[in-house]
From TrEMBL:
It comes from Phocaeicola barnesiae. This is Phage tail protein. Pfam families: Phage_tail_2 (PF06199). InterPro entries: Phgtail_TP901_1 (IPR011855). It comes from the Bacteria.
Length: 149
């Protein structure tokens, strides 16, 4: 039977270090496809379409950590492409918060690919926790992970 995954267990990792994006509050993975209309006289009153190119993006919202924010800003300024993993944490459900050694991606789970940072913003509202948002654009295939990372 399928198991429902809690949002707190699905995380974004730097695929080079397998380190989770720190203090995350929300991650969003979006896949989209370009549509090519293939209608003809045989289509009748309904349009026909096919998907041509696929693309993917990830948005991550996090509480501000100077070290993590600075690392991402440096990657964006350098226009570096880097590996990302979007997966369930293999050591999820820790009642004590971050496990010793940090979160790790679950083996044989999730998706991986290369991405570039297309935008990063920080918000520092008076009396609130500072936060940042980062948008990643995939540069090539998003692949299902079928082995340990």
């Amino acid at each position: 039977m399928a198991q429902i995954v809690r949002g707190s267990d699905l995380m974004l990792f730097d695929g080079t270090t397998n380190k989770a994006f720190a203090f995350a509050t929300n991650h969003t993975l979006e896949l989209s496809g370009d549509v090519l209309e293939t209608s003809s006289k045989d289509s009748g009153k309904w349009k026909s379409n096919q998907i041509t190119k696929l693309s993917w993006t990830i948005t991550s919202e996090n509480l501000y950590s100077e070290e993590d924010y600075d690392d991402l800003v440096e990657k964006m300024i350098a226009r570096d492409e880097f590996d990302v993993i979007f997966a369930i944490a293999g050591n999820a459900d820790s009642d004590a918060g971050v496990p010793e050694g940090g979160w790790t991606p679950k083996a044989n789970s999730g998706y991986k690919g290369k991405a570039v940072i297309t935008s990063i913003s920080v918000s520092a509202q008076d009396g609130q926790n500072a936060t940042y948002s980062v948008n990643l654009q995939g540069t090539g295939a998003l692949e299902k992970i079928t082995a340990s990372v």
